[in-house]
Amino acid sequence: MGEKELLFRNIQTLMETLGRLLGEDCEVVLHDFDHPERSIVAIINNRVTNRQVGDPISEYAWKVLRRGLEENEHAIVYRTYTKEGKRIRSTNVFLRDAGDRVVGCVSFNQDLSRLEWVRGWVDSFLRDDGDSVDEVADEFAHDVMAILNKMVEQTIAGPGKEIHRLTKDEKLMIIEELDEKGAFLIKGAVDLIASQLGVSRYTIYNYLDEIRAKNRMM
Question: At the top level of its lineage, which domain of life is listed (predicted)?
């Protein structure tokens, strides 16, 4: 058995495993460049290009053979389309004999159709739809009181002043903002907020009545 035949036989023993490993969307082809008009010696997952053993090398491969390969050129990678419209990513690894003559190649032709469909789905899912989807800071806590505490602390810090320096209008603004955030839907909110603002719970109720009465008039 000649050197090239031994090389091809060894590669063919790997192709079945490579085909299973890479999946049915990746075609694995062994080409014999000594017979380019019927170069395919073995092919796995041939549904990608629908070729058979005995079929010729591709048009692009003909061009590569025509121009010749550089001494250190071991592989080429390119994208193309099949006549059915499939988008293919091709990687061709060249095989050389002991005299550095290029005797063939192993081609990996990846059908990108399903990958591109998945990418399109992911892109559409993550796409920024402008005003239709708001991007906001959110709190995913295990305890509703932790959420309330953070909400109150951030809102009270809004005016940028110490608690004892807050005016009534500023306190009203804080209570109104907390009301809009839904703070008072949480049990115990009135007592917590009153404690944080240094006022009585009855003051908080009065502030709420004042704010809601004002909003009803608007």
Answer: Bacteria
